Amino acid sequence: MSSSLWNLNVSIESQPEKGCALIGTIREKLTELKWPEGDIFKIHLATEEVVMNAIKHGNKLDPEKLVSVVCDIHPDRFELDVADEGEGFHRDDVPDPTREENLLQESGRGLKIMENFMTSVDYIGCGNRVRLTKERSDD
Amino acid sequence: MTSFTQITTEQVADIQIVNFNSNRVMDPMMIEEIGGELQSLIDQHKGGTFLLDLSNVEFLSSAVLNRLIVLDKNVKADKGVLAFSNLGPAVGEVFAITKLDLLFKIFDNRSAAIEALQ
């Protein structure tokens, strides 16, 4: 396991603007560390989905609840661990939005995007904690 | 005519063409604002044809996709047409992953869209 070039360990309030600021910080760091643009786009999108899900669906925008975020950027690997204080969810309970009968549904696409863009996505415990990893692409 | 801040519109033939002023549509407030402006445009031209030109859009989230689905439903309810053009590779990949390329009318570029939609 390579050593981390950058580490972030924070808890943020359940406000979308706090999430946006955090996502911006991670994106800036990836740019500074010269990750490929395509990877940065995918990580940005997946990070936004998981952080906003925790704020909106997990903690339901409750200002008393926090979202814990641990991010590690290694030379060839991005890791993100996001936990909320909500009840969690079962991945299998979320309908597949790409099935023809679900195309008009207005939810579930964020998980699909995350799972396609990341190397791995793990839903931990009751589902209120999600761990993402992404291997760096060749430049 | 309503003035918009997040989108720029122009009319070609009977088609309302929309450009986004920001290249990263992610901030929840911005998504709400864009959705409201698009809905306002749709309400002004009920049953019309709308082309969203995404050439300036580098990034959009699932929240935006969900909003576009709602707008598409509203346009179709008025027997109108909502179409897209100029998806960049990254945005195109998001549409493909979520299979929205099967739901929406998508054209390579603006002129191809105008020709087909007229």
SSE-based structural type of chain A: alpha+beta
Strand content of chain A: 25-35%
Strand arrangement across the biggest beta sheet of chain B: 1-2-4-6-7
Low-confidence stretches of chain A: none
Principal-axis shape of chain B: globular
Please, what is the oligomeric state?
heterodimer
Q: Kindly provide the radius of gyration of chain B, computed on alpha-carbon positions and rounded to a whole number of angstroms.
A: 13 Å
**Structural class of the secondary structure composition of chain B?**
alpha/beta
Strand content of chain B: 15-25%
**Strand line-up in the sheet with most strands of chain A:** 1-2-3-5-4
Q: Number of helical runs of chain B?
A: 5
- Distinct helical segment count of chain A: 3
Describe it:
Chain A has 139 residues and is α+β, with helices and mostly antiparallel strands. Chain A has helices at 16-32, 37-58, 109-117, and strands at 6-13, 66-73, 77-83, 120-124, 129-135. In chain A, helix 2 packs antiparallel against helix 3 (109-117). The longest helix of chain A is centred in the middle third of the chain and has 22 residues, at 37-58. Chain A is globular. The two termini of chain A are 21 Å apart. Chain B is an alpha/beta fold and 118 residues long. Chain B is built from 5 helices and 7 strands, in the order βββαββαβααβα. Chain B has helices at 28-44, 62-77, 89-97, 100-103, 110-117; strands at 7-12, 15-20, 24-25, 49-53, 59-60, 81-85, 105-107. In chain B, helix 1 (28-44) runs parallel beside helix 2. The longest helix of chain B is centred in the first third of the chain and has 17 residues, at 28-44. Chain B is globular, with a radius of gyration of 13 Å. The model of chain B has no long low-confidence stretch (mean pLDDT 91).
